[in-house]
Amino acid sequence: MNTANPALEFEDFDRLVEQHRTRVFRFVFASVHDLDLAETITQDCFWNAYRSRSSFRGECSVNTWLMRIAINLVRNQVRNRRFQFWKKAQRVDSDQIHDWPDHRISPEERAAVNEQVQAIWEATDRLSERQRTVFLLRFVEDLDIHEIAQSTGISESAVNVHLFRAVRSVRRRLGRNK
Amino acid sequence: MRNHLTEDQFARCAAGQGKRAELEHLRKCTGCAAELDDFKTGLGRFRTALRQRVDDRLASRPLHLGAARAPRAIRVPLWRWGVVFASVIALLLPFFTTVSKKPEGAQPGIETNANAIMDAVNRHLSRSVPAPMEPAFSLIPTEEFITEPGGVQ
C-alpha cells in the first residue's frame, strides 16, 4: 500500500488504529503469552507509530511498519524480562488459549484439539525469539517471506532458515506430546 | 529421495516451499502426506484458537488506544522512591552534622596584621607573672614564622 504521500496514511489515525490493532495485538499476545502485557505493548506500538509518523516513507505497507515496531517492542520486553529473574520466578502460568471455539464436535475430540493447540502454544514459547517471530508471522499472520523479511529487517534466506528451524522444533515437541 | 521426507524437507513443505521432488513424494507417500496434513491442521487450529482468544478479549475489554497519544508516565513503584530518598538522606546526613557542629576548642582568629602581632607580643612579654614553661611565641602563627621572612622575626 505505497501511496504517493505517506503522511496521508496517518491523517486519520483513529481509523488506522481501528484497522490494525487486532493484528498487532494478536501478534504481541502470541509472542509474550500475556494479555495484559500485550495490551500495554500494543498501546506503546501505536504511540511510537504516532510519534515517529514523519519517518514513515511509504517504502513498505503500514501494516509491515507497525509490525516492525511491535517486533522491536516485544524484543525489548523479552530482553528486559531475561534480566528480571525474580519476575520469572513470580510469573504465574501464562495466559492459555485452550478453548476450542467449535462446539459441534464431541467432548473427546474437543479435548484432543485443545491438547494439540496447547502443545503448539507451549512449543512456540520455547522457540528462540527470532524463530518465534518468524513462525508467528508466517503461520498466524499469514505474511509471506518477503513481508516477514521487511518486518524483521533480516534477509529472506535468513527468514527461511529461522522458519525451517522453528517448524522442526515445533514438530519435534508435538511428536513428544503424542 | 529416500523413503520419507527428511526433517528439512518436511519443514520446507510445511512452510509452503517444497521442491518439485518433495511435492512428488508427498503425492505418492501417504505416510508423509498424512503427517504433513496433520501438522498443517494443527497449525490451522492453533491460528483459529489464537484469533478466537484475542477476539474474546477485545470483545470483553476493548483496547483503550486513545490513551496511546498521551505520553505515558514513567511508572516507578513507590517503594523505589522511598529507597532513593532514604539513600540521599543517609549520604547527606553526616555532611550536615559535621558542618553544623562547631569545634569545641576553637582557637580565636590568628592575627596577620604586623602591628597587631607586635601589640600581642608586647602584651605577652609585659605580663606581670608569666606562666612557667610557657612558649615564648605562642601567639605567632607557625606558618607565617617559617614562610614569611621579614615578618615578626
Note poorly predicted spans of chain A: 89-93
> What is the overall silhouette of chain A?
globular
* Main sheet characteristics of chain B: none
Cα-atom Rg of chain A, whole angstroms?
18 Å
Summarize the amount of helix of chain A as a percent range: over 70%
- Secondary-structure element pattern of chain A, one letter each: HHHHHHHH
Uncertain spans of chain B: 70-74
What summary fits the major beta sheet of chain A?
none
The largest contact between protein chains, plus residue counts on each side, is: A-B, 41 and 33 residues
Number of strands of chain B: 0
Task: Work out the helix count of chain A.
Answer: 8
List keywords for this structure.
heterodimer, A: 178 residues, globular, B: 153 residues, 58% helix, 0% strand
Describe the structure.
- The complex is a heterodimer of chains A (178) and B (153).
- With 178 residues, chain A is mostly helical.
- Chain A has helices at residues 13-32, 35-51, 62-83, 85-90, 107-125, 129-139, 145-152, 156-177.
- In chain A, helix 6 crosses helix 8 (156-177).
- Chain A starts with 12 loop residues before the first helix and ends with a helix.
- Mean pLDDT of chain A is 83; it is low at 89-93.
- Chain B has a domain at 7-60.
- Helix content of chain B is 58%, strand content 0%.
- Chain B has six helices and no strands.
- Chain B has helices at residues 7-14, 20-28, 30-60, 78-100, 114-125, 142-147.
- The model of chain B is unreliable at 70-74 (pLDDT under 50).
- Chains A and B meet through helix 1, helix 2, helix 5 and helix 8 of A and helix 1 and helix 3 of B.
